[in-house]
């Protein structure tokens, strides 16, 4: 079943939670509330009809399905982030030249 474009941002949240093993830490990294992260992950789990995380007192752990989704999606997100950085670098390129005041005059 292909995943729709509307899940793109939610998958990005999923990756952050999986890498931090914590809704709170992922929320801080993304400048979001823990509740917003939790709601989005719950919605993703409902849409996919699988449980992605086991919640516990120390945070969260990926389920088997969660590990499979992370292993599938993470390389693609890294490619996208690399390409965006490359594109941004092409636009933001600048050259700074330093010289002595004697030479500049």
Plain-language structure description:
- There is one protein chain.
- The chain is 65% helix and 8% strand.
- The chain is mostly helical and 105 residues long.
- A two-stranded antiparallel sheet has the order 1-2.
- α1 packs across α2 and α1 crosses α3.
- The chain starts with 7 loop residues before the first helix and ends with a helix.
- The mean pLDDT is 84.
Describe how the helices and strands are arranged.
Layout: H1 8-20, H2 23-30, H3 34-48, E1 53-56, E2 59-62, H4 64-91, H5 101-104
Antiparallel strand pairs: 1-2
In short:
This protein is mainly alpha-helical and 105 residues long.
Distance between the termini: 67 Å
Question: What form results from the Cα inertia axes?
Answer: elongated
Number of helices in the DSSP assignment? 5
Tell me the helix content: 55-70%
Described by strand count, sense and barrel closure, the largest sheet is: 2 strands, antiparallel
Overall mean confidence score, pLDDT: 84
Catalogue the unreliable spans: none
Strand order of the largest sheet: 1-2
Q: How large is the share of residues in beta strands? A: 5-15%
Radius of gyration: 20 Å
Order of helices and strands: HHHEEHH
Which structural class matches the secondary elements? mainly alpha
The count of DSSP E runs of length 2 or more, i.e. the number of strands, is 2
Which tags fit this structure?
about 100 residues; mainly alpha; 2 strands
């Amino acid at each position: 079943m292909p995943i729709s474009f509307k899940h793109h941002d939610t998958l990005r949240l999923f990756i952050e939670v999986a890498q931090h093993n914590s809704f709170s830490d992922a929320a801080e990294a993304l400048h979001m509330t823990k509740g917003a992260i939790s709601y989005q992950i719950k919605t993703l789990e409902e849409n996919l009809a699988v449980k992605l995380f086991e919640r516990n007192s120390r945070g969260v752990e990926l389920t088997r399905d969660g590990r499979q989704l992370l292993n599938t999606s993470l390389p693609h997100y890294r490619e996208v982030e690399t390409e965006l950085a490359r594109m941004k670098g092409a636009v933001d390129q600048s050259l700074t030249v330093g010289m002595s005041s004697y030479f500049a005059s």
